[in-house]
Automatic annotation (TrEMBL), chain B:
Keywords: Cell membrane, Membrane, Transmembrane, Transmembrane helix. The keyword Membrane applies. This is Fumarate reductase subunit C. The lineage of its organism: Bacteria, Bacillati, Actinomycetota, Actinomycetes, Pseudonocardiales. It comes from Lentzea indica. The keyword Amino-acid biosynthesis does not apply. The chain crosses the membrane at residues 20-43, 64-87, 99-121.
Length: 247, 122
């Protein structure tokens, strides 16, 4: 009987800015353990094989959203993706697609960071703010709860071909986060100018891969389609109704 | 800073089934447009009298027009099915499960098609 494999080969993207003109792959042999995520493999490399490897991580439990990488071609949280699922290997670990690579597996997400505030991801309340807690029923919370689960991991941007081809696209997570506030019973904000623009929901052609890639069940594709209907109805109202009757 | 911009491969749409489906759906708009043109041609032939209509029918039944229409039908069906699949996501009706919205769309489609068929064939 063949002996069970105890190691797996990880092919990891290496890119040193200023030195390399383009990224290359480097192979490492790491222990194959049942409880090891891809991130544990990377940590093994960093601690024991090659201290120069750069990548981001923090919580290693799917909460911080910093460990997104392309694992065998798919955007994944490397802390929630297990090596055994890729045995016998090799498993290829690359930086998230659609973002510039700063070094090795570290990408630059400043594009998202400039887009996010445009959707005003905070409560905009007209009228008096109640003293103390701003109450809401569980039903009201259910309206937007899944959109609030986003951890800004960027897997959805990495999976989105529209974002790849049109980088001006506001993108899945930013729109889902706009909807998170739009659907909040305590919010009276108007985000239409941004969300209903050509770079907003109308750029989306419903590929649906963002929702497939999302590790938190946010369903940004659903959020976008839903807002398309909202925006279309609002535009129709603008067209048909006199000013006073709108809303 | 000299960050590396990852190029988008020319064949990105072949990398994943969902990407291919998306490109095919985008392409389907061309065939939807063709059906509009075809419908206008049919209307104009009918307006020009029975002889012109017979010519139109003969032209439709032969060669490339038939092939084109079969291909166009396949694309329009793809368009309709994917469009309907999107409907429950866009229309979130309180207290109505998404599948009801989906079935509602197919029912409406069936009823409208039956009405048109009745109008034409009666
Ligand atoms: S929507 Fe999902 S995939 Fe996109 S950034 Fe948020 S958690 Fe990540
Ligand atoms: S390390 Fe925090 S989400 Fe993976």
């Amino acid at each position: 009987m063949a002996r069970k494999r105890t190691t797996i080969t990880m092919e990891v993207t290496r890119f040193r800015p200023g030195e390399d003109s383009e990224p290359t792959l480097q192979s490492y042999e790491v222990p194959l353990r049942k409880e090891w995520a891809v991130l544990d493999g990377l940590n093994h490399i960093k601690d024991h094989l090659d201290g120069t490897l750069s990548y981001r991580w923090s919580c290693r439990m799917g909460i911080c959203g910093s460990c997104g990488m392309t694992v065998n071609g798919k955007p994944q949280l490397s802390c929630a993706t297990f090596l055994v699922d890729y045995a016998p290997g090799p498993v290829r670990v690359e930086p998230l697609r659609n973002f510039p690579v700063i070094r090795d597996l570290v990408v630059d997400i400043s594009d998202f960071m400039t887009k996010l505030p445009k959707v005003k991801p905070w409560l905009i309340h007209e009228g008096e703010t109640p003293e103390g807690e701003f109450l809401q029923t569980p039903q009201e919370m259910d309206e937007y709860k899944k959109y609030s689960m986003c951890i800004n991991c960027m897997l959805c941007y990495s999976a989105c071909p529209v974002y790849a081809l049109e980088p001006e696209f506001l993108g899945p997570a930013a729109i889902a986060l706009g909807q998170r506030y739009n659907l909040d019973s305590r919010d009276d904000g108007d985000r239409r100018d941004v969300l209903a623009s050509a770079e907003g929901v109308w750029a989306c052609t419903f590929v649906g891969e963002c929702s497939t890639a999302c590790p938190k069940g946010v369903d940004p594709a659903g959020a976008i389609q839903r807002y398309k209907l909202t925006a279309a109805v609002a535009a129709l109202k603008d067209f048909l109704l006199p000013r006073g009757a709108r809303r | 800073m000299s960050a590396y911009r990852q190029p988008v491969s020319t064949f990105w749409w072949l990398h994943q089934w969902s990407y291919l489906l998306f490109v095919l759906r985008e392409l389907s708009s061309v065939f939807v447009a063709w059906f509009v043109v075809y419908l206008l041609l049919a209307v104009s032939a009918i307006a020009d009298g029975p002889a012109a209509y017979q010519d139109f029918v003969a032209w439709s039944g032969g060669g490339w027009v038939l092939v084109l229409n079969v291909v166009a039908l396949a694309f329009v069906l793809l368009h309709a099915v994917t469009w309907f699949a999107l409907a429950p996501k866009a229309m979130v009706v309180p207290h109505v499960p998404p599948w009801v919205v989906l079935v509602g769309h197919y029912l409406a489609w069936a009823v409208l098609s039956a009405a048109v068929a009745w109008l034409v064939l009666r």
